[in-house]
Amino acid sequence: MQSLWTGLSALNAASSQLSQVSGNIANINTVGYGTADSTFEDLLTTHLGGEATAPTVAGRYTQPGLWEGTGVMNTQLMTHFGGMGLEKTGNSLDFALSAENEFFVLKDSNGQTLYTKAGNFQLKENSNGTANLVTTGGQQVESTNGQPITIPKGVKSIEVSSNGQISYGGQTGQRIAVAIVNTPSQFLRSVGNNNFASVQGLPSQTIANSAAGSSSGIHVLQGYLTTNNVDLTNEMTDLVKAQDYYESNAKAINIANKLMQIDNQIRP
Questions:
Q1: Can you spell out the DSSP letters for the chain?
Q2: Which of 40-44, 92-96, 103-107, 130-134 bottoms out in mean pLDDT, i.e. has the lowest?
Q3: Of the candidates 203, 227, 207, the residue with the CA atom closest to the CA atom of residue 217
Q4: Closest listed residue to residue 124, CA positions, set 142, 112, 136
Q5: Hey, where are the domains in the chain?
Q6: Which of 115, 165, 172, 235 is the Cys-Cys partner for 103 at CB 3.0 to 4.6 Å?
């Protein structure tokens, strides 16, 4: 019976990996998409004592100190942000960041702080004629003072300097907030729509351009987008491996089932 549960856990892990690889391939053209990667671990192992396989009529015993595995599971889905390039678009509402650990700061409809690499923003007009800078999913892009970025009524275009400072018609507006999250693969989790939330234990992130007149080393690039880092060759290889993994464990379950059928037919 344990062989069935072990095989089932492996099928679940393989299915999860297939979904992860398929998601990477599906986002080959998505702006600022970071490649997702699965990690696997053994489930609890069971220590079998000397009597575990030794009924009174058996001529064999379990060897001392034997540990039997109980399966495998997909323990963590990590996103990798390294290796992303830049694409020039010339669109004044497209923005990119220069470093792997830099993220635009967003606020969703529930007030939750989110982070993203995707800087393909747009203006959402309000009833009073002003407009807010938002993502394609409608999340508000945050300024360094923690407020939504608002563009005054009648402004048709904006200019943004390398430290995130917005200007229009000779006037100075808000500044686009940029957060530095060290080791983002460890401290950020995907929440969909190419957005990320912090996990428990995230050290206080640095709003890198919050100091007046200082860019703190960041570079906001207007008219550029951060490309994804999906390597289609690697993903297709991983897809084949995951499929083989799934099929192998399906066969193992089938063999275990046949052995159990044979065992049921044995008469004492």
A1: -HHHHHHHHHHHHHHHHHHHHHHHHHTTT-TTPPEEEEEEEE--EEEPPTTTT--TT-S--PPTT-EEE--EEEEEEEEE-TT--EEE---TTBEEESSTTEEEEEE-TT--EEEES--B-EEEE-TTS-EEEE-TT-PEEBBTTSSB-EE-TT----EE-TT-EEEETTEEEEEB-EEE-SSHHHHEEEEETTEEEEPTTPPPPEETT-STT--TT--EEETEEEPP---HHHHHHHHHHHHHHHHHHHHHHHHHHHHHHHHHH---
A2: 40-44
A3: 207
A4: 136
A5: 2-81+231-265, 86-226
A6: 115
Chain segment 111-160, per-residue pLDDT in tens: 899 999 999 999 999 999 999 999 999 999 999 988 999 999 988 889 99
Integer Cα distance of 205 and 213 in angstroms: 20
Q: What residue has token string 């109980």?
A: 70
Pairing of strands 159-160, 140-141: unpaired
Q: Is 21 left (phi over 0), alpha (psi -120 to 50) or beta?
A: alpha
The dihedral of CA 204, 209, 214, 220: what is its sign?
positive
Q: Report how far apart, in Å, the C-alpha atoms of 9 and of each of 13, 36, 43, 148, 157 are.
A: 6, 21, 9, 45, 55
pTM above 0.85, yes or no: no
Determine the Cα–Cα distance for residues 123 and 100; give it in Å rounded to an integer.
Answer: 26
Write out the two tokens for 250: 């399906």
Instruction: Answer for the pair 102, 208: CB distance below 8 angstroms, yes or no.
Output: yes
